[in-house]
Structure formats: structure tokens, C-alpha cells
Amino acid sequence: MNTVSDINALRAQINQWRQQGQTIAFVPTMGNLHAGHIALVTEAHKHADKVVASIFVNPMQFGANEDIDNYPRTLADDQAKLAAENTDLLFTPTPEIIYPKGLENQTYVEVPDVSQGYCGESRPGHFRGVSTVVCKLFNLVQPDVACFGLKDYQQVQVIQTMVDDLSMPVKIVPVATKREASGLAMSSRNNYLTPEQKAIAPALNQTLNWLAAQLTEQAHQNLDDNTDYQQLVEQAKARINDSGMQADYIDICHARTLAPAINTDKELVILGAAFCGKARLIDNLQLTLD
Ligand code: PAF
Predict the structure, then answer these.
(1) Mean pLDDT for the chain?
(2) How far is CA 103 from CA 49, 61, 100, 107, 258, in A?
(3) Does the beta carbon of 28 lie inside 6 Å of ligand 1?
(4) What are the φ/ψ torsions at residue 167 (nearest 5 degrees)?
(5) Residue 202 falls within a domain, yes or no?
(6) Is 254 found in the same domain as 192?
């Protein structure tokens, strides 16, 4: 597997493949790869002739008090994992290559509505950074298909909306969340957990499952009072707080628009985030009410 940091080298390889009539699938990452990322590469191979991955810890999507300096950087390990998964090319630009004028003077992409609320509220500016860097990476790699993990459910909706609104010729393929045996969603930020914290962290996923069971039960009782959702949400937050974590948000949303769910919505997603020691964990659960 070839690794390039330079935009000209990336473009030369992409152009060569294009001239040969090869299709391209893209897996953008911030590195510190785990089984969830590898599942993206495996999926990418099903959709195109060549798979390009990128590793770029994007400064634009981190807030001032967030963990960009401590974010785990494990390039040699990541290269070995991507090579073992037959990745064709790895792009590893520096911040100076992606943002030569600095962050302040960079044109940006802001996706309205789905970027608001949930992680968008807890992390102001985060989704602007995500949509801007993904737009830029799409322009550089020019993929036919790009794979994103559903653990970052709101991110997938933000990127799909950007692609739709700006008529980008890229098919977005969402890939199911990989989990530890405990149910904990795999994440690079799990590295911040102590063994004790790792033992309580599955409470986030367990709480989402509990909430989904309550919603299914309520649907069977044909309740039509929307306030019941809020009561359930408060109970779910209390469960998380009782586990030893601190709930950031738990919300029941329309699966595509992410608007707060109303009782006639059938396709739902429960979004959740909780602080566990130094880590802020996110998870979600999609469900259909019949
Ligand atoms: O999900 C991530 O790892 C990042 O948000 C992404 C999509 C690579 C953009 O920096």
C-alpha cells in the first residue's frame, strides 16, 4: 500500500486509475484504527475497484477545550492494518496541506438543521469542521462511493445532506457500528477509559436499548401524548447518571431529519452521549415502530 501526503501525488494516482476506468471508494478517518474502521474498508471493497483511505486529525472539528493534542496518533499501526485489508492508497495530509491559509481564512461548508442540536450543540463548530474537511477530501479523492460508520449517526446525516444539497456525485454508504462484547461501541476515544470506566461504559448502549423497549411498549399501547417521550428521556438520563457516567444528552429523533420525534413518527433514532472520565462517548439506536 502506497502512502502519500502530497496532493499532487494523490491526484496523479487517482487520475491514473480514472484513465484505466477504475472506480474508487473512499474511507476518511482520523486514524487510531480499530475494527470499526476496518469494517469500513471491507465494505468499501464491495463498492469499487480501488479503496483509498485517509488519516487526518482535522483541527477544524475540535473545539478549543477538546482533545486534539492528546488524540491518539498511531500511523505505523494504522498503515499495517490498512495494508492487511488490501487498501490501495493511504492519504496522510498535514494541517498545512489541507488548510494552507490557516483555519481563520478557510472557506467552509455549513450544513443547516441536521448539524444543530445533539453533538452540534455540545460541540459548537464541530460539524462545520466535519463537512468542510469531508467536502475538501471528496474534491481531492473524487470517489464514487464513501463509507462512514453509523456510530456517528448525526455525522452521517450531515454528510448525506451536504452531498444532496451540493449535488456531489458521491454515494454515501453508512456502515453498522462495531461493538465490544459488552455492547460498548468501538471508538478511538475508548482508549481514554480506565478498566473501571470501561466496565461502566456499556451502560450507554444498555440505556438506549432500555429506551427502545419502552418506546416499543408505548407504541403497542397507542399512546398519543408526546410528553411521554420526555419522561422516558429523563428516566434514561437518570439511568446513565446512576451508572457512574454523566449524561450529556439523550434524545428521540426522526431518523432522517433528526427533528425531535413526534408520536406519529415511525422511523426513529435514539441519540445519546455521556461523559465517562476523560472520554465523551456517543452511541445511537435506530428503531421502527409499527
Ligand atoms: O469520523 C471521523 O473520523 C471524522 O469526523 C471524519 C469523517 C474522518 C472527518 O474528519
Answers:
(1) 96
(2) 34, 10, 8, 9, 28
(3) yes
(4) 50, 45
(5) yes
(6) yes
pLDDT in tens, 15-67: 999 999 999 999 999 999 999 999 999 999 999 999 999 999 999 999 998 98
Residues 76/117, Cβ–Cβ less than 8 Å? no
Is there a domain that residue 129 lies in? Answer: yes
Specify whether 54 is located in the same domain as 116.
yes
- For ligand 1, say whether the CB of 134 is within 6 Å of any of its atoms: yes
With respect to residue 181, please indicate whether it lies within any of the assigned structural domains.
no
Read off the CATH number of the domain in which 107 is found: 3.40.50.620
Question: Is ligand 1 within 6 A of the CB of residue 55?
Answer: no
Q: Which of 27, 29, 34 to mutate to test the pocket of ligand 1 (most atoms within 8 A of CB)?
A: 29
Establish whether 254 is a catalytic residue: no
Q: Give the global pTM.
A: 0.96
To the nearest whole percent, how much of the chain has pLDDT over 90? 93
Tell me the mean pLDDT in the region 68-80.
96
Give the tens place of pLDDT for each residue, 210-263: 999 999 988 777 655 555 789 999 999 999 999 999 999 999 999 999 999 988
Name which residue sits closest to atom 6 of ligand 1, judged by CA: 29
Q: Which domain covers residue 79, as residue numbers?
A: 2-175
Q: What is the pLDDT of residue 227?
A: 54
Atom 8, ligand 1: which residue's CA is nearest? 29
Residue 150 CA, ligand 1 centroid: distance in Å:
12
Q: Residue 250's domain is classified under what CATH number?
A: 3.30.1300.10
Any atom of ligand 1 within 6 Å of the Cβ of 61: yes
